[in-house]
Amino acid sequence: MAQLDVREKLGILADAAKYDASCASSGTTKRNSAGGKGIGSTEGMGICHAYAPDGRCISLLKILLTNSCIFDCHYCINRKSSNVRRARFTAQEVVALTMSFYKRNYIEGLFLSSGIIRSPDYTMEQIVEVARSLREDHQFRGYIHLKTIPDADLELVRLAGLHADRVSINVELPTVPGLTRLAPEKSATRIEGAMRDMKTAIVDTADARKRYRSAPRFAPAGQSTQMIVGADAATDRDIVTKAATLYHRFSLRRVYYSAFSPIPEASAVLPLQRPPLMREHRLYQSDWLMRFYDYAPGEVAAAADPATGMMPLDIDPKLAWALKFRERFPVDVNRAPREDLLRVPGLGVKAVNSILKARKWRRLALDDVGRLTVSVAKVRPFIVAEGWRPVMLTDRADLKPLVAPKREQLELFAA
C-alpha cells in the first residue's frame, strides 16, 4: 500500500466509493469566496455528479479514505475477507487532492467516506481532520459531505457536524433481521442511536443560532442515510415503511436507495442476481410521494401488490395507487382541494400549483390541463374539467393499458 502513488490510490478509492449512493449537495447554506475571503463556494454549475433542488449539476470529489475495513459485511466489496486491492489516503493527501481539483474547476465539493481501520474512533478522527483542515487551514467554503461512523465517540461526530454541510449514517438494510444476517458486526440500535444524537445536535444548534448569532453552524444541510435494496428479503412495502419511520424519527433530508450489485467472490448468503434497476427507481418515486405529494406512508405502501409487497415495475406507484382506489376519482380540477389534485396521475406539484392559481380567474378545460402535463391521455380518466367528463373511462375494467406508458424498443445504432 505504501508503494502506491496518489494517482493509483485515487483510482482504487474513487472506484470503491461508487457503491455509496447517498451523495447530494442540496439544502446547505450559501457560501462563497467573494471579497477575497477563503476559497470555493457551495454554488455554481457542475468525478461524481449531484443535483441541487433547482436542477443544477454539482460535481463532488467522491472517494473513500481507505477501502480497508475491520468489518466483514457480506454485501460490501470492501469487507475484511474480500480479495480486492487495498489503498489508503492520509488526511493531508485528501485535502491536497480536494484543493487541487477545486482550483482546476473540476469539483465544487467533497464527499468522503471510509472503511473502518483500527477502530471507529481512529477512522472518525481521520475523516474529521480532513474537513477541519479544509475549513480552517485552507478556508475552503465549498460543499463537504461526511459519512460518520455510528460507533465513534459522540464528540468526534459533533466535530464532523461543525465542519461538514451534510452528514450521513447508513442504516444499510431495511430490516433488523437482514442487518443481523448480512452485517452481524453492526447494530441497528447503535445506528439509530447515532442518528438520534445527530438530530438532537442539529436541532439544538439551530435553536442556539436563533438566539445567538455567534453560535456555530452544525450540518446545515442535515443528515441522510442509505438502504441497500435486494440484498435481503425485505419487500418494497417494508422499505417504504422503514423510510417513513426514519423521516419521522430523525428528520432526515433524504433516504437513498441503492440496488444491490453482485460482488466478486460473494458470500453464499447473497442473491446471485441484482434486483431490477427499475425497482430502485420505483422506490425513489414512492419516496417523492411521501415527501412532496402529501401521501401518508400507508397510502404509498398500499400501491404495492398485496401478495408480494412489491411495487409494480411497469407503472409508477402514483398510477398504481390511483388504479387501486378508483373510487377516489374523477376529481374536478376546478373545485377539488390541493391534496386531491396531487393524487391525479400525470399532475406534478408545479402543475397542481398552476391549476390552483389559474382557476381563481376562470374555469379550466381539458386542453388547459393538457398544457401543464406531459401526457393528457394519462390524466383524462381521473379528472373532470370544463366540457370534459370521463363517463365511460372511469369505470372501465381495462383502464390500465390505456394509461400505462407504452413500451418502446430502442434502436441500437440510433443517431
Cα shape: globular
By DSSP (H or I, 4+ residues per run), the number of helices equals: 15
Low-confidence stretches: 25-34, 39-46
Query: Distance N terminus to C terminus?
Result: 45 Å
List the helices and strands and how they pair.
Elements: H1 6-16, E1 48-51, E2 57-64, H2 91-103, E3 109-113, H3 120-137, E4 143-147, H4 154-163, E5 166-168, H5 176-182, H6 188-211, E6 223-229, H7 236-250, E7 254-259, H8 277-292, H9 297-302, H10 317-324, E8 331-332, H11 338-341, H12 349-358, H13 366-370, H14 376-379, E9 383-384, H15 399-403
Parallel strand pairs: 2-3, 3-4, 4-5, 5-6, 6-7, 8-9
Antiparallel strand pairs: 1-2
Helix pairs in contact: 2-3, 3-4, 4-6, 7-8
If you had to describe this structure to a student in words, what would you say it looks like?
The chain has helices at 6-16, 91-103, 120-137, 154-163, 176-182, 188-211, 236-250, 277-292, 297-302, 317-324, 338-341, 349-358, 366-370, 376-379, 399-403, and strands spanning 48-51, 57-64, 109-113, 143-147, 166-168, 223-229, 254-259, 331-332, 383-384. Helix 4 (154-163) links the parallel strand 4 (143-147) and strand 5 (166-168). The longest helix has 24 residues, at 188-211. Helix 3 (120-137) packs parallel to helix 4 and helix 7 packs parallel to helix 8. Among the domains are: 6-211, Alpha-Beta Barrel (TIM Barrel), CATH 3.20.20; 325-403, no CATH class. Mean pLDDT is 86; it is low at 25-34 and 39-46. A 7-stranded mixed β-sheet has the order 1-2-3-4-5-6-7. The chain has 415 residues and is α/β, with parallel strands linked by helices. It is 38% helix and 10% strand. It contains 15 helices and 9 strands.
